Amino acid sequence: MRNRLEELRARRGWTQQELADRVGVSRQTVISLENGRYNPSILLAFRLARLFAEPIEAIFLYEDGEGQNE
Amino acid sequence: MNDPNMVLKRRIQQGWAMVGLGVLLLVVGIALDALVPASQLNFKWVEGFGVLFTGWGVIYLARYSLAARSPQAARRTVVEDQDERNIAIRHRAGNTAFLFTLLTTSFALIIYSAMTRGQAYDALWLYMAAVVIIPSVVYVVTLFWLRSQ
Fold it and tell me: What is the model's pTM?
């Protein structure tokens, strides 16, 4: 799933490690999230949404049919 | 996230418990080897489990004792342990390893049965059958239990 994490993080001037520390995940997870290789749990998605003060769907860009063939 | 210091304290306690159990098994294994003549029973497997638990415990102690030295390292170590992606990766790796073990052991059991023409229900055959059946039962029971949650 595509997302705007990198853009939102860069706008605040945070490093990937800083973002990871703020939401309680590893830096590697932030890298995978930003690359779209890993889709977060709903709890992590909410934590990220709260942190950036944005609705989840404004951060994670779901497209119809995505993930249905996995 | 749970308090990193509490998590590390618990992990270090688990490490000591594993070392204690390992040393106990080693001592018991060595004592049994000395007391029971080798021709009757071989207790090397008890010592083997002792080495396994001791090694496991030492790894735990080394990892978490080092992490406990600084608050930042403690936090990072706990985050690494509880990170949802790491957990998902561990589960997938474990699932693959489980299926692979089940397949290879089943195959070995079939080959062994064929080689002995189905006559040998000895310790090795029973062990391999148990290695196939018990994890399969645990797998199915766990699936039903999790689906009923």
Answer: 0.73
